[in-house]
Amino acid sequence: MKALITGVQGFVGKYLADHLLSYGIEVWGTSREDSPLLCLKNGNVKIIKNDLNSEEGILYLLQSIKPDYIFHLAGQSNVKKSWEDKEGTFYANVNKTIFLLDACVRYQRENPNMRLLTVGSSEEYGRVEANELPIKETTPLRPMSPYGASKAAVSMLIQQYHKAHGLNVVHVRPFNHIGPGQSEGFVTTDFAKQVVELENNDSTPTINVGDLSSERDFTDVKDIVRAYHLIITKGILGQVYNVCSEKPISITDILNYFLSFSNKRFKVNIDASKFRPIEFKKYYGSNEVIKEQLGWIPEYSIEKSLKDIYLFLKNN
Ligand code: GDD
Questions:
Q1: If you measure from the C-alpha of residue 186 to the centroid of ligand 1, how many angstroms do you get, rounded to a whole number?
Q2: Same domain? 266 vs 138
């Protein structure tokens, strides 16, 4: 078995590659840069430079590698940044996906068993009413950020390609996912990094945070990649799957976990520049479909995931 992961050098890509390698799957990846082999715990990933800018270029890649599974992870995944660069977000998330979808339609004629998984987001749902919680796959899409709109467009495109061309594609809508190695700009790294950097200060240091009032649904990245593997192999083609814990937790509680891991006392400064134009107060998903159909349930507790992030930053 061979898998191709677009955006393999990203946060989720590395975990997914390592997970697939542990199953004896040969893993290839694309990257925007020229890159050496990616050496992971369970083996090596061969990396090909391809910025997914053309259907022909992607088709050539598929015909050369001949993957059975294609995981499309590449994209612009930062919600706040999507407000600052809407065009770039749409080009990265929608246009490049269209090139990939068209290339896959042609590649599937040569390899009818190939399967594609596209990564969307819980941000596709956008505004939800209190009586719509937990959010199901059937909840209407009312995206409220350029990022959410771009991923909702992908969601709709894949349904069209599945119906019009019989493309073997499944789409996932992960809610917030976390783990060691996530970049700055995401809440758990932003908080943990400050705690680790400031805990050796002599005085009482100040942590800058954004809006603490909302609640989100966090899942460990290792549970997320296990879900992606299950969905691409056993999921129903053309279907959408939420991947989430179904357990909302407030951002205040996330902060308090990190503060509790340290012996140091901190002051907390609410920084208005970190706020978004629109914020959802309570947001969590239903994982009933993936649980019932594929038997997936998250294995990592929120406390374990947060502790891992804190220790990773402390030791690196
Ligand atoms: N990033 C960040 N930094 N967020 C903060 C901070 C801070 O210092 N302080 C408070 N927050 C709040 C945000 O306002 C938001 O309510 C929540 O913490 C989570 O923010 P993020 O970690 O940036 O995640 P997100 O929910 O905007 O988006 C993530 O999850 C989506 C799935 O729901 C991203 O991973 C997306 O790519 C993903 O699709």
A1: 5
A2: no
